[in-house]
Amino acid sequence: MLTSVSYPVRNICRSKLPLAKTGMTLLQDGDLSKGTAFTKEERDHLNLRGLLPYKVFTKDEQAARIRRQFELMPTPLLKYIFLANEREKNSQSFWRFLFTHPPEETMPVLYTPTVGEACQKWATHRQSYRGIYITPEDSGKIKDILHNYPRQDIRCIVVTDAGRILGLGDLGASGLGIPVGKLMLYTLIGQVNPDQTLPVQLDMGTDRKEILADPLYHGWRHPRIRGPAHTKFVEEFVAAVKEVFGETCLVQFEDFEMETAFTLLDHFRWRCNCFNDDIEGTAAVAAATLASATHMEGVPDLKNQKIIFIGAGSAATGIANLIVDMAVSRGGITKEQAYKNIIMFDHKGMVHAGRKDLYDFNKPYMHNMEVYGSVLEGVKK
To answer: Where along this sequence does the record place binding of a divalent metal cation (predicted)?
Structure first.
């Protein structure tokens, strides 16, 4: 079970606490260092005297310093890089700042939309060591890699292969910012203990020639692995996670290619403690909203609703699937009828039985019916 944290996140460094690290080694460990918040007694006890300026700052004063510097950064990306560096230097003051600063100002920097640009430029800006990278060349050694991570009480993993990062497509090995950002939000909003979380990048190669041509690219220079070989590798990863961190460790699949995302979810949903945020997380919120709306006076029940989706990808299909299940569970409609109440449009037009360019997960919504030329036409009819 995930444990929660409260503000402040933790108070690791106390003067009576024996630490293996002292002096400069301690200051360079962002998870143990308090920086200028070490007391005079602690500075003597931990061989820090002279390595820090005279004044002992409170944690609130440290957070105020971060706030001032954060506000001076001229662009969202520079704010993102600044916060990443602060977390590496002193995670306690980093979290103190986040818990005391308006989330509407920090969340767009920690995650969307800024994280997309950060991932695109991952090869050039300073990269965090929070998380692990695993490539197909590591097959047979994944358990060793998981053991290399400094924390072993891991309860929640967010893993991506960067096959479809936000709306940016295949980013190769530059997707780790997504799991890092998502897990920071879990701590900031859900009080999930950050010491029990692990961001993972499965580096399955990339088909983007401009990425492979970059001399600073840090990933596995190989065409992207897909299909059965991809699933087999993820099987090895999941098995290693269950052995190292336990059967109950939560695995969240994040930003995989659409067809791969559905394949993995269907393959693993009954084999491990997992979910796909793009398919299931988005669906839970959207379906709950629709369910609430249908309880209002004068609003038709789900079985009598006609729903049009602008988009037919993993998120839209996940929402549609849950709406179908919800309508059937309420009674009065079959699954086949519920499917027919949903019409989807993608960038090529309406999803229908005559199209040959769709995915398997689109099939329930490929109806034999009048083809509408536009969303507006569908709404009018």
So the answer is: 254-255, 278
